[in-house]
Amino acid sequence: MNTIISYHQTKFGELWEFSLHDLIRIAVTEAIKDANIEKSQIDAIFLGNMMGGVLENSLHMGAVIAEQLKLHIPVYRFEAACASGGMAFQQANIYLKANPDKTVLVVGAEKMTDAGAGAITEALSAAAGIDEQFAGLTFPGLYGMLARTYLDKYNYSEENLAHVAVKNHYHGARNKKAQFRKEITVEQVMKSPYVASPLKMLDCSPISDGAAAVVMTNNKTLIKNAKHAVTVLSTELATDSISLKGRKRLDTLEATVIAADKAFAEAQLERKDIHIAELHDCFTIAELLAMEDIGFWKKGEAGNRIANYETKIGSGSGLTVNTSGGLKAAGHPVGATGLKQIGELYMQLTNQAEDRQVDGKYGLAHNVGGSGGTAVVTILGQV
Amino acid sequence: MNTIISYHQTKFGELWEFSLHDLIRIAVTEAIKDANIEKSQIDAIFLGNMMGGVLENSLHMGAVIAEQLKLHIPVYRFEAACASGGMAFQQANIYLKANPDKTVLVVGAEKMTDAGAGAITEALSAAAGIDEQFAGLTFPGLYGMLARTYLDKYNYSEENLAHVAVKNHYHGARNKKAQFRKEITVEQVMKSPYVASPLKMLDCSPISDGAAAVVMTNNKTLIKNAKHAVTVLSTELATDSISLKGRKRLDTLEATVIAADKAFAEAQLERKDIHIAELHDCFTIAELLAMEDIGFWKKGEAGNRIANYETKIGSGSGLTVNTSGGLKAAGHPVGATGLKQIGELYMQLTNQAEDRQVDGKYGLAHNVGGSGGTAVVTILGQV
User: Is the ipTM of this complex over 0.90?
Assistant: First the structure.
């Protein structure tokens, strides 16, 4: 069984003292160190990064990592917008299925805060369809349309979105690696300025720098000797029309539904078996859609149930969501996010989550590219 | 055994009437048609593209393909500079090893001729190390340094490079899909203006648009029913320091040496078993280095042997190189090149290569990223 034996995450935030390549190097070398292995024991590396090309003219980053490590092993770079990290992990899992007795490293990284507002807005919009870009739609603009559809269809107010931000900031305040470690109130969310109606500033995840890496192996000796180990039960990827106009419905992300169904089938688990989930809350609306699309809650009921704070640490409901603080409070360096989600589950399932520790045997990570054109759902379990 | 059952290539050249996404769509839909299957029989798609982000702000292209095909299957995008196509193919092969009874499509594409000279020079330099970029080194500049090292060390003149271009233009003239279908002479190469000494204009591959796709399967029924099929014996990827300063030697690309050794070991073949090779001749020097690094010729002797034209169609030597015209004459839409090389072997091994047909049971493709930071070597055989 493919098993994660270490995780390292840099702090997420405005890390002006580090370059993109610094962040990758730190996450890679620390994850190897934490796994208590030599770099020569790594057989292949899988990298998720979205914006290295557009923001700093750095492509071919596999060879950058080869230079950093002085290794000649395969290094693969994946790009699927904000799902780049999840995609890299999903393919790494396939690599291990094809190759017995191997060990891989999966790293996600992004360096966003050096770019000006125009450059980062344009870079983020590269995740959208060309016609959407020509129409002037920004990344928040696309999710604003999804939010408007949802609120109107199920008769909710903007306050129903705000609870996601409040909960995730509460969690982020308990995570030392989070970008924002400050609790907020519904009133503060409601009073924050509009970014793309109905989404306000405090409905949006921030622009962030950061990197995260895991070491994953199917080598029995390494698994046996691992200090902290978590099993990969399934990881599935699905796609959808990049443009919203190509979708049947706008109150659901079909790629999430498909990836989740496949992941639960492969893991042979039920929705109720999951105790910890890291969901892709790039905007508050996205967590509500994810709760329904994954099947934790029924379609249309998330707006109500989020107001009960039943997925908050300490609620006792049995399912806690985004203990890391989510993208909203922990930060969203896009290529790193998919790995940070998996890493948060690893920390939780191995009782290393400190002030935000919750109980649970199984965890689920959900990583989305763009406005839902790609989704990756991963289920991990205690060994 | 993983088997290629179809191939489609757009013409390579200045295709102003098509966008990047048009080229992808054409190659994908035609390859599916040629395989005589329905699109619903495709389980996953692997895309190689380098410059979609930097040249046209298009990332997340997996979801673009999902929209074009109206499918929800996994679509993975790989980027390793000019080895993006080879990397996509190499991972697709791993996917099939992990998953029995599956069929995948691998597509490579690039749209380069819409960009201005400055933009394309910068985009190509994204394949180099950041310090090399800061030093002002262009892509031809890096290969110019490799060429200078080789000519000086083994006491050759610039004419020893020119024969590569003459041979590959001779081949390209016989390939209807090639960008340049015109034979050239050594004198013409020698009289062409310097781009980056000692490399002259006719030592360099062109800026190109194009796409290429293969359908590969391990489904026994599809293999049995295929009109034209070729077996994948091995495909291996290795890396090296992205920057030349990080290399031990500059008269060899170590990533090629490692990938080739692994590919021959996996295929259980000797160098002499290969009758057809598509090598990564982005510049004339690159084909000479590849002939030696793969082990067809001894280190230092390529400069002499190329002058005998023993790898030209009709020479009778038993090994013909770059029957497609290579990158030099067939064109080099960078993300498509790795797939076009594999496709050319497919056409040759299934006797569909028309005016450029040569005999042979086994073929080798060699795809390089940047100045050698990534190399992919693939060996195919007749079924």
Answer: yes
